[in-house]
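sry for the spam today, last one i promise. struct tokens for design, 790 residues
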């Protein structure tokens, strides 16, 4: 039977892939076989010899295939479909595909509409290549700048990760193919990623590490979710019932399939019971047999196997229409979109004036020189499973020469891996000769663009970085160039934050282009020349030093455990709590124009307590004006703080943002709504989201440290009373609305000596009774508790 014949479009084919009928016709062995891969990239088919008229599939074809196999493929910023038969690491040659900017660049766009368009393009390429599911996006939180895979993740903040992740998923899936939201969850490092236990308290998980996943699942319903390799509080994600079933499905309403990361299964039977539907890649039948045996010996209910098999069949069913009509894509249009996105994700960190005018944008190519091998040999994507074979590749040097019509002089200045090799001909060359040549070129120029960045060997899937610094030879080159030319623009290419503090005083202008994909070279030139007015914003803080980062000392852990000791104070939440200086704050990014903010107001829309998660609770208004003489886009950021709460709360947290295009002089009135959930925290004892009534500070600004206006609102809150117990303290009893007054009378009525009053507050009621203080007896305590908890 061909895929066309299995298409669920009964109107055109007369046949339907009826999941329930197929499932009902499968044997236990066949169902178990669906729960693991056929090879590295495909699901297992079910075939029967001589199955003509096979009732299981509900059709009467002469073929023997009851369930077809479908292909899943990396991802996420381009398709990595292996061209040849799969090798055992799945890293062989892949078909050409558009290499879009990596997630670090997408994150810096702060532009869900653009990211959705990238998703649509990725979906078209996935579909055109007969692939059912693109394995991405990755939305793990950037806990440490050192994570080798940060380039594949969007942000240190769950709102950015969730909003942009949802946009990407919706875009891809609009093309009739699926996504795999990964890596679920708490996979925030590469070191020991296959075994380490991420030891994280539930509040931190809920507010930081799960919140982005929750947003994407609720907004965009990814077809699949991929569980991570690591353990969470000692339980492997691949067999974590709380994570995969209670949270993901029961609470968030996830309707799709959960697959394992490649090789993440330790105990297949426990995994099936926990909600892990599909193990990838193939297990050679070993774990299918484990599942069958567990059912036969009564350890696993066959109904649980049915649930997982049904989800695999549903994935197959929803993949069939696109597989029957793959379509094509326009490689030129996708390259143009990759270029637009690369420019949009480029962050202008700094643009000081020299001789009365900012260095950027460049007026033309005249008098400009380019230094740095990365301008000619771009670093445009990260290494590992996400590595794409691009349809073409732009470099900044060629793009600059083409755009300006000037044969801009160039000197390599260094070799990308510092190995003294000339990439053009492989001949051995001397780094100091390269420096001398660069100094000569820079000295003769009016303005020099110095391209610096991290070599591929510094950051990759599979290992973490050891430090945040640029290669020493690159910094030495910059020093030498700056000594002969003060008009230095540094253009960075790297997948995660690098330290800028040691060298940025040498460069009046600094541009962060991240890993911009196959059109990154032309995209960054668009920004340098002002063809695109920069509007990228940092989705991760650039700290002054690695030691300032909140995970420092707890990253990457030791002896199989990594303790998330900083709790909810991740990224800017930590730097703000510590009032620590940073190199560039979260949300920062300059423009070639300027913006003014006026009239920030915040209005409570009604009752917040018990409001549904998505109901608007607070309406924020602001007017933004482009006060310069160039069109540009501003990213308006709304932060919320709860200055007095029972628990430690971050100073402020991003809860909403909007990117607005404004013509010179144009003003726009913006309305951004906050939900009750935006004010809530996860109560560690009540184990639910709560809004604590009282004052909230709503700030609107251009970065987490550039707040342009704020307003205070007072909202009603949830009932946060905990049951009163024998070990509740006197202070807690005093606060109790029912028995508080009585306890007050007991304590302050003279029964407790004045010098004891200070000590007694933290004393458990049972101890007070046992000491015979305040006239409290055990019997009176029992009565008190039952009245309090009635
Ligand atoms: C990675 C996943 C990837 C998978 C398949 C794993 O090692 O963690 O992100 O999708 O391999 O290549």
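last one done:
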């Amino acid at each position: 039977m061909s895929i066309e014949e299995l298409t669920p479009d009964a109107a055109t084919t007369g046949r339907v892939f009826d999941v329930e009928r197929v499932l009902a016709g499968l044997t236990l062995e066949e169902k178990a076989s669906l729960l693991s891969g056929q090879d590295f990239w495909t699901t297992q088919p079910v075939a029967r010899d001589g199955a003509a008229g096979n009732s299981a599939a509900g059709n009467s074809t002469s073929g023997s295939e009851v369930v077809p196999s479908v292909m899943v493929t990396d991802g996420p910023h381009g398709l990595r479909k292996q061209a040849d038969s799969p090798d055992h690491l799945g890293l062989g040659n892949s078909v050409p595909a558009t290499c879009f900017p990596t997630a670090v660049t997408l994150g810096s766009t702060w532009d869900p509409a653009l990211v959705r368009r990238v998703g649509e393009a990725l979906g078209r390429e996935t579909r055109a290549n007969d692939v059912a599911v693109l394995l991405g996006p990755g939305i793990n939180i950037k806990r440490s700048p050192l994570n080798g895979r940060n380039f594949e993740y969007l942000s240190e903040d769950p709102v950015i990760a969730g909003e942009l992740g949802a946009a990407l998923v919706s875009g891809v899936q609009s093309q009739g193919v699926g996504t795999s939201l990964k890596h679920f969850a708490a996979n925030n490092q590469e070191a020991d990623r296959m075994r380490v236990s991420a030891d994280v308290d539930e509040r931190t998980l809920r507010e930081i590490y799960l919140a982005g996943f929750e947003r994407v699942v609720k907004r965009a319903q990814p077809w699949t979710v991929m569980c991570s390799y690591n353990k969470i509080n000692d339980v492997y994600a691949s067999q974590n019932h709380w994570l995969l079933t209670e949270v993901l499905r029961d609470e968030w309403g996830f309707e799709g399939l959960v697959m394992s990361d490649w090789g993440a299964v330790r105990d297949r039977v426990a995994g099936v019971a926990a909600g892990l539907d599909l193990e990838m890649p193939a297990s050679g039948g070993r774990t299918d047999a484990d599942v069958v045996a567990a059912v036969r010996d009564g350890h696993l209910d066959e109904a649980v196997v049915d649930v997982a098999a049904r989800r695999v069949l549903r994935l197959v069913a929803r993949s069939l229409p696109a597989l029957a009509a793959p379509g094509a894509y326009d490689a030129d249009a996708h390259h143009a979109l990759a270029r637009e996105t690369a420019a949009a994700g480029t962050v202008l960190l700094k643009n000081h004036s020299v001789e009365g005018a900012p260095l950027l944008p460049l007026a033309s190519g005249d008098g400009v020189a380019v230094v740095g091998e990365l301008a000619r040999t771009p670093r445009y994507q990260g290494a590992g499973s996400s590595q794409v074979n691009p349809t073409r590749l732009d470099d900044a040097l060629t793009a600059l020469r083409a755009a300006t019509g000037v044969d801009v002089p160039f000197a390599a200045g260094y070799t990308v891996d510092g190995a003294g090799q000339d990439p053009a001909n492989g001949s051995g060359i001397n780094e100091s000769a390269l420096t001398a040549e660069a100094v000569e070129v820079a000295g003769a120029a009016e303005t020099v663009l110095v391209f610096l960045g991290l070599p591929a060997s510094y950051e990759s899937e599979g290992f973490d970085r050891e430090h945040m610094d640029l290669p020493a030879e690159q910094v030495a080159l910059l020093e030498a160039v700056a000594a002969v030319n003060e008009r230095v623009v540094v253009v960075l290419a790297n997948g995660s934050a690098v330290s800028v503090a040691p060298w940025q005083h040498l460069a009046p202008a600094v541009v962060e282009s991240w890993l911009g994909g196959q059109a990154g070279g032309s995209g960054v030139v668009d920004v340098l020349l002002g063809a695109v007015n920069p509007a990228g914003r940092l989705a991760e803080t650039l700290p002054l030093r690695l030691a300032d980062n909140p995970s420092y000392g707890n990253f990457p852990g030791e002896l199989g455990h990594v303790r998330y000791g900083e709790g909810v104070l991740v990224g800017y939440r930590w730097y703000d709590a510590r009032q620590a200086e940073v190199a560039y704050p979260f949300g920062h990014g300059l423009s070639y124009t300027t913006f003014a903010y006026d009239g920030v107001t915040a209005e409570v829309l009604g009752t917040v307590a018990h409001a549904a998660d998505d109901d608007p609770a607070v309406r924020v208004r602001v007017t933004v004006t482009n006060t310069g003489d160039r069109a540009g886009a501003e990213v308006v950021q709304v932060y919320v703080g709860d200055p007095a709460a029972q628990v430690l709360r971050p100073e402020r947290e991003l809860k909403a943002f909007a990117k607005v295009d404004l013509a010179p002089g144009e003003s726009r009135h913006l309305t951004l709504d906050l939900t009750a959930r935006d004010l809530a925290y996860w109560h560690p004892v009540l184990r639910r989201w709560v809004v604590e009534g009282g004052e909230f500070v709503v700030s609107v600004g251009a970065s987490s440290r550039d707040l342009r206006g704020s307003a205070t609102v007072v909202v009603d809150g949830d009932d946060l009373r905990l049951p009163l117990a024998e070990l509740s303290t006197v202070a807690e009893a005093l606060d109790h609305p029912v028995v508080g007054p009585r306890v007050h009378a007991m304590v302050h009525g003279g029964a407790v000596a004045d010098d004891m009053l200070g000590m007694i507050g933290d004393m458990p009621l049972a101890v007070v009774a046992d000491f015979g203080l305040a006239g409290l007896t055990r019997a009176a305590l029992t009565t008190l508790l039952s009245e309090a908890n009635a």
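Residues 74, 90, 135, 182, 261-262, 385 surround beta-D-glucopyranose (CB under 6 Å). ok im logging off now
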